[in-house]
Amino acid sequence: MRLRSVLLGVVASLLLVVIALTVSARSFAALPSGVPAWLQAHVGDSDGQISQVVLERARALYLKKVAQGAVKNPCYFAMDATRPGDLGNGVLGRRYYVICEASQSFRAISSGHGGGRNLKGTVDFSNGRRCSKNFGNAMDSELTAGGAYMTREAKTSFKGFYRTGAKQDAAFLRTFIQFDGEGEAANARQRVIGGHAAQVLRGMCLRKNPDSSYADHDGFVPFGKLVEYAGGRSNGCTSWSPADAQQIISMVKDNPTTLYIYPESRDIAAVAAIRSQSGGRPYWNASCLKEIGAPKFWPRKTLEPMIAQYKKDHPAPPPQPLPICKGS
What's the pLDDT band for 9 if we cut at 50, 70, 90? Predict the structure, then answer.
C-alpha cells in the first residue's frame, strides 16, 4: 500500500511538471521570435505602447546594422506615424520610441509629422495636426516618408536672438541630426530630412548689436520670438520637444543608430486590401484611420513634376531683407 502511494505521488509530480513545462513552452512560443519578455510587455495599440509590426521591423533593422558593424549604440528608435500627434486638451500623442534593450529601457515620447502642402488649384497633399493622411518622398513635399533610416552627423546653427526676460536676450542655437535613408527614403539627405527640437523663431527683424559675434557687416543681428510647436507639424523631419530633443541628440551624437518609421508605401497600399487568410486588415491606428478615411502615398516620380510645374506657374517673389526691429 505504501509503495502504491509513493508511485502515485511520483506520477502526480511528473504530471505537474509536464503541465508546467507545456504552459511555459506555450507562453514562450507566444512571444515573437527573439523579442524579450520585458519589451513584449510594452507592445500594444494604446498611447505609450508600440504596435507589434512597428517593433518587429525596428528591431530587425537595428540587429541587422549591429551585425554589419554599422551600429554600436545600445539604443535604437522607432516612430509610428499612423498614430495621432495631438490627443486634444493639450495632450500630445506618444508615438516616437526610444528602446535600449541592454538596460531594459523603453520610452514613448511625442513627435511631429510632415505637414505636406496645399498647392491651391493644383493638388492638395496637406496633413492636419492630429493625423497624417498623406505620405511621400518627393523633394519639397514636406511629407513624412516611412522606412529605414540611420542617424548621422549633428549640425548646430545660429538662428537668431530671442527675449528671455526684461532686457535679456539669448542666442537660439538649434542642433539638427541628419538622417540617411534606404529604399524609398534614400533621398533623405537631399530632402534635408533629420531630427531636431520643435522650435523656431517667428516675426524676425534686425536689431543693432555691433558687439555681438553674430553681427553682420552693418552691426545687426536677427531677432525674433521663440515658438515651440511640439504639437504641430514639421516639414517632413522628425521633431521633438526641446527636453526630449536634448536627450536624443546626446544619445546619437558621434554614435549613430537606427530609426524605423512606419508606415512604408507597401503598408499604405495594403490598408484597403483584405488579407486572404486572416480576413484582417494591415495595421493602422484605428482612430486616425476613421478620421482620414484612407491614407495615400505620393511617389516622387508623380509628385515632383507637379511641384515643379506649380513653382514655374507661381514663381516665388524675390527675397526681401529683414525689417529693422522697432525701437532699435
Answer: very low
CB 72 within 8 A of CB 63: no
Query: How do residues 168-210 score in pLDDT, each as one tens digit?
Result: 999 999 999 999 999 999 999 999 999 999 999 999 999 999 9
Contact 135, 79 (CB under 8 A): no
Is 29 a residue whose pLDDT tops 50? Answer: no
The pLDDT tens digits for 102-140 are 999 999 999 999 999 999 999 999 999 999 999 999 999
- pLDDT recorded at residue 150: 98
> Residue 165: its pLDDT value, please?
82
**C-alpha grid cell for residue 277?**
487568410
Helices (H), the chain: 2-30, 37-40, 52-68, 242-252, 265-270, 286-292, 300-313
Buried b / exposed e along 72-91 (16+ C-beta atoms within 10 A): ebebbbbbbbbbbbbbeeee
CB 117 within 8 A of CB 94: no
Nearest by Cα to 36 from 106, 87, 138: 106
Task: Give the burial class of 210: count Cβ atoms within 10 A of its Cβ; 0-12 exposed, 13-18 middle, 19 or more buried.
Answer: exposed
* C-alpha distances out from residue 142 to 113, 136, 145, 165, Å: 9, 8, 9, 34
**Which residues lie below 8 Å from residue 302, measured CB to CB, with a gap of 6+?**
138
Q: Measured on CA atoms in the order 117, 123, 125, 127, is the torsion positive or negative?
A: positive
SS3 24: helix
The mean-pLDDT minimum among 12-26, 74-88, 311-325 falls in 12-26
| Cell numbers found for residue 190 | 537631399
Secondary structure element (H or E) that encloses residue 222, with its range: strand 220-228
Asked whether the beta carbons of 143 and 135 are under 8 A apart, the reply is yes
